[in-house]
Amino acid sequence: MTPMPAALSALLDALYPPRCLVCTQALPSMQPSLCSRHGFDPLEQGPVCPRCAAPKSPHLPAAVACAACRKKPPRFQRTLKLGGYHSAAPLRDWILGLKHGGRRDLAAPLGAALGRLLEAEPQEWRDSALLVPVPLHPLRRLERGYDQALLLARAVAREQGLPCLAALKRQRHTVPQGSPGPGSRLANVQGAFGLRRRARVLRDRPVWLVDDVLTTGATASECARVLMRGGAARVGLLVVARASRRV
Questions:
Q1: Residues 18-31 pLDDT 10s
Q2: CATH number of the domain enclosing 69
Q3: Which domain holds residue 5?
Q4: What is the pTM of this model?
């Protein structure tokens, strides 16, 4: 393709200035599609627990889980994240836009970035792997108009050429995991998920659960329990962000 002349490029930038994908702030010419507030780099996270992706001591070997996971392991064995979730985190506005702002278009770049995290995983986590979104309750999906975890999972599938399967279903409504006290979070989600008939194909295959935010870990752990009971070889978690709160 013939490069665009510099003068024409400058004119187009003046008439239609590039804008941040998330907040639409005008950007300088020839800059990435994100402003300084909303850019993120998954490689700049520091030491994290391989099981739950929470920050851990830099003195622990990379393969060793954090103290909380060693004391009470979640049902999922691996977690990959793009970053943290807090008031100053670049990914916070991405997630709020996708989840509550009707910005379903943000799922594609986020899912593509999540997919690239899988490229560094060992073959046992990649061969015959399935992507399974954490499902919304049907009432919430009706209110929102879409399931953001399903959009993310489909974007990962396109990026990596992996199958995406809605293998889980919500069997009852649950309150948000930030609301219950620590002692009731597991009880809140116990029995809330079941397998669809199509889930028979997950037998002896690695499964990656896909969701927007990992908060307490109780929801993901219950989903992983159901998937393992259904025959999955192992269950990992792919999330956009990891909140500081955990089980």
A1: 777 888 777 765 55
A2: 3.40.50.2020
A3: 1-36
A4: 0.85
